[in-house]
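Final report, section 2: Outcomes. Of the targets proposed, RNA polymerase sigma factor (Sigma-70 family) is the one most frequently requested by collaborating groups, and we therefore present its record in full.
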Amino acid sequence: MADDATRAARTDEATVRAARAGDQRAVDTLVAAYLPLVYNVVGRALQGHPDTDDVVQETMLRMLRGLGELREPARFRSWLVAIAMHQVRDRHRRRPPLADAVPEDVADPGADFADLTILQLGLSGQRREVAEATRWLDPDDRGLLALWWLEAAGQLDRDEVVAATGLDRAHVAVRIQRMKAQLETARAVVRALRATPRCLDLAALTAGWDGRPQPLWRKRLARHTRDCPRCGRAWSDLVAAERLLAGAALVPVPAGLFTGKLAVGAAGAAAAAGTTGAAATGTAGTVTAGLAPATGAGAGALAPAAGGGAAGLLAAKPVAALVALVVAAGVAVGVATHRDERRPATAPTAAASTVVPPTAAATTVGPTTAAPSPTAAPTSGPPAAPAGVRTAKKGVSTTPYPGAAGALADVSASWYLTWSTEGVGAPAGVEFVPTVWGAAEAAPDRLRRIPGGSGPLLGFNEPDLPAQANLTVEQALDLWPRLTATGRRLGSPAPATGADLAGGWLDRFLAGAKARGYRVDFVALHWYGSDFGPAAVDQLRRYVTAVHDRYGLPVWVTEYALVNFAGTPRYPTAEQQAAFARGSAAMLERLPFVERYAWFALSSRESGDTGLYGPDGTATAVGAAYREAGQG
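The predicted structure is given below as tokens.
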């Protein structure tokens, strides 16, 4: 089932009733809230085929045209998903069989919906494997996959899945079990094919294969993985797909995808309905391109659209055509063209230096007091930058560089880390927390270099990634007694992803530590959001909360920011990053089980568009926001 944030984003029965009565805002809200859902149903069912946008267009047009005939507004979502699936099946009936299709009619496996899912949601590890494995399913199962994926993500419930298929509940359950078995087999195939160096027998088997995922080849390769001792390892440690997909976001709707298609298709449909341009404007005489703001997964999917609403997704002409269809169907809608200039809400910044006391659960850093405000004196120079907000939780990560000490003093952090056991000469009152980065740093002579004291110590850095600490759970557990011997308060290894997953790297490490009687005092984790809209703050909150709920330990967020690491790293605008810095800091201050958090990173030279200070030592827009953030 969906959580409260997702449930709140879904249009309720009252909104559907208002839309049926011709309320322009309610109609806008329906489109804004449900276009991402329809796009994900159709896109995954057709595996990103070029016809996807046409089928989505037809689904939305049919929704608006039939809205007045909907007898049970409470079942609007179920009704809309059933329309989408009907359009998918209709498309399959109208298109020629794949064997007779021209090459251009076959989706490029490198640019299909699985690829979009990986890129847009920044999937990695086993979540990425699940997305890649969907390419190998039988074509007849793709529609069911689309529905089950959304059910696992909390976007649909089983009753809605059953209604969309048109089958009885027992039959649907059997088909889902069969499809999940195929998906698990495909995950093992994906793993075996990605292993380096490749198994020689597997290389010989695939010598005549064209590289396209196909059910026949899935069966052949799966048979090999079961019989081959080396490739058989691909079946181990598979986390249940439902757990991996829980809470997964919707793939965002491409802002430019529907502009041309909807303009042509909807305008043509309006003309066929005999509606003139004047009639299309409705009783208000104008046409809207604006959408009411949405929250949750739907809002995140719409966030990248230029202008913040339908102006970025549907041009005025296609919206006019859609309205024309609604009028022709007997639902009068009057709307106005505009661009929504609203920006993501941000927490208020402090106008003067403020010290926020730590929560009861926070590790305290030493008393800090607000400096007395001197009497203002006339000055001809530029106004001084507002002093920041310092809290016991607020920190930052950095590597050594010439301006680090000055930036640490200015950013109002109470502590910092360097991913090593050596600090950067920070000003008084800013605590250095050393990190045992990997196996080499856990050597006895290296551990002896850690400055004396009884402060906290951070464990291995992203041991689940080959490019970072690259440790198996067993290797980390074997080294752990060396860290506990320091006597310091000890943080867990910080995995790159999946800290909340049953069977994930951190879950297995903490279970092993408990079995061996090893001490772990708090959980350290990293989080990077690929959703650049306002929903990112709540996504971080849910992740941190899920980690705490699973292990019952205090939490340190030792790296976080908004970055999409799929392919070449992509960053939000400075305004989006700054809004997230303010909102996330305020949220983390309010969570009693979060002891500390550290932004990535202090210098913009090392962190692209997440950096807080430029090469000249001046705070970036993000740096200014983080400096003043921290008011819970």
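The chain has two domains: 4-245, 354-368+389-627.
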